[in-house]
Specification:
3 copies of one chain form a homotrimer. Chain A has 11 helices and 10 strands. Chain A has about 270 residues and is α/β, with parallel strands linked by helices. Chain A has a single domain (about 1-190, about 210-265), classed as 2-enoyl-CoA Hydratase, Chain A, domain 1, CATH 3.90.226.10. In chain A, helix 2 runs parallel beside helix 4 (about 85-100) and helix 4 (about 85-100) runs parallel beside helix 5 (about 120-125). The two termini of chain A are about 35 Å apart. The relative contact order of chain A is 0.14. Chains in contact: A-B, A-C, B-C. The interface of A and B includes residues 149, 163, 242 and 248 of A. Chains A, B, C: This is Enoyl-CoA hydratase.
């Protein structure tokens, strides 16, 4: 993977294949938050790896030592001025989740740090998430006047209605990695990065040599009953798109960006 | 909230609004168990607060330092002589759960003590239950010849089939507050009353100032797929209504009331 | 229960009725794994006890001090040469699970040791599983080129999608009894055999004297929404049947049998 200066400034999504395993890595300087362009790239890379007959398993990871994924890009959220733009932006997350859902390969998520909003959605939509201590989770949407509508179905499917409600309602509260493991968001929680890497290496290697036909059938079984999500997540994107241009949401987003600008200036 | 002597003897349901938060409180001298009249009042107050545009969040609580809710009133259960009466009584619980389900506000339950039968249903039908140590739970229905049929859908939706089955089958066994928290019935379990009150205060205050539109959409998402419950819970009330007039149930209820009368006489 | 020498060599399924409780016991010398003949016998005994009006509760147990159930018989799996034979073999598990599902009595599983593959399915399809420390679980299907397709619906229904995915994907990894209890596969996990036996005795005795009508209704409620499983599990048996005759599966099964033969020879 070659990373250029431009990538470090604007973020990137890159894929690398090695021994039947494709690793998809994303990075964004604002805490691995995701602008529309990167969401489109992520969906594209997942579809591409899904179609590659020499690939049996996908590892989804992000770069750096900070957050795994900060969710939606606040800069882009704040720039949205119409419901249609809002719907389009949130459809970016819908497309990534639908790509993960329809991908005939098993997807392992490598969760090296915090997950917020859409980042929780990525962890939930993976078939098997392996995390390390410190990987806290939060669905902060309600605190900026919106809600976890697009990622909701993926999160609820994985951790159940109760845990999904808890995250959605108590939107300012971080739940720690052990909570996420107990609720089933993370399949494993490791004490160290090394231990997490070893486990990912072991499992991805085992799956790379497992029966391709069996994995295709397993994937279908896991996602049975979500056939309507292309439409459902689009409807959800419209709800978030409408809310994000409300006065309350505009106000909350402005406060966050102002605070960030002030912090930078100091 | 003004409470009269009559209320203390016969039980009451009262509402109070303060800063966009409506608190609904119920009380009954028999361990906060619920006769038909109070069930009707509870449903009414929930519908009323749901229609109040100045309310954003509802706190459901009971009075006293004993049980949060003892479930169905044993006196009324024992007085039922026909299936039709039975169905009507259990429809009272169905109406409360359906009112909570359709209410467009978020409902926080304040669980200060034990929950039995219908009381577990109230905790489950709330969107977010905050409890304190000592809040044990039990679905004792089978031990009196009936079953948790009306509250079943609400309980299973919140804690899953396995935990719901455990409670239903092992009907004489109390599960402690930590069990209820781990299974998702309680979102939070606090070591002290003070800590529970602080958390309710903090969360209700935050929600009172959150986006009304976002909360309405969240509530819809949480209860998606329960649109048939008006009918389902009525059918369930008919099942309980039929069982409660069986010889086995009559016998079990008589034993409980006799034991209570004897304890009072001593 | 009279057990003959032939039974010890070829395995057996036997039933015994005592005080409204039918105990169904199975045994097979290869770690209580299940050949087609025993699966048919198991289904038959469950249906028989379900139709017995003097029975209120069924205890499902296996003999010995080793595994509770090793899943499908490897000897039979290895002998399958056509998809049709494969589908027929796996339909044996489908029939047992469907018999448990449709049985109008509550089924308590006594899990005294490890559960593998189909053995996890039996524990999941019971209404209430009581286990002892050491009862580890594994869905090893993917490691022999197949998948937990027939038992999948029963396992997912009981422990949720996340835990089911974890077991299915990480197919070589044992999860301990505490994991199984936390995920809801086991209702209880006891430190000693004595404590497990006491609990089974207590609960089965209580249920034997509970309302038959209430239990019939409870059982219906627990299994609501599975009415299509006769067809679903047959479709799943066809998937496993197709995979088990693949080259990859044949190769994996041969390796296991060779290792077993070698171990025996030493």
């Amino acid at each position: 993977m070659i990373i250029e200066v431009k990538d470090v400034q604007e973020g990137y999504v890159k894929s690398e294949k090695h021994n039947h395993v494709t690793t998809i890595e994303f990075f964004h300087p604002q805490g691995n938050s995701l602008p529309g362009k990167m969401l489109a790239d992520l969906a594209h890379e997942i579809v591409y790896a899904g179609n590659d007959k020499t690939v049996n398993v996908i590892i989804l990871r992000s770069a750096g030592t900070g957050a795994f994924c900060g969710g939606a890009s606040f800069d882009e959220l704040a720039a949205i001025t119409t419901e249609a733009q809002g719907k389009q932006f949130f459809s970016g997350f819908a497309n990534v989740i639908n790509a993960m859902r329809k991908c005939p390969k098993l997807i392992i998520a490598r969760i090296h740090g915090k997950c917020v909003g859409g980042g929780v959605g990525l962890a939930a939509a993976a078939d098997y998430a392996i995390a390390v201590e410190g990987a806290e989770v939060k669905l902060s949407e309600l605190s900026v006047g919106i809600g976890p509508f697009v990622v909701g179905p993926a999160v609820e499917r994985k951790i159940g209605l109760s845990a999904f409600s808890q995250l959605s309602i108590d939107a300012t509260h971080w739940r720690n990695g052990d909570w996420a493991r107990r609720k089933g968001l993370f399949a494993e929680l490791h004490p160290t990065l090394e231990s997490m890497e070893e486990s990912i290496e072991r499992l991805s290697n085992t799956l790379a040599h497992s029966s391709v036909e069996a994995i295709v059938e397993l994937k279908k079984v896991f996602w049975k009953g979500t056939e309507h999500w292309d439409q459902l997540l689009t409807e959800r994107a419209a709800i978030s798109g409408k809310l994000v241009v409300s006065e309350q949401s505009k106000h909350a987003l402005k406060k966050i960006l102002d605070a960030r600008a002030k912090a930078k200036a100091v």
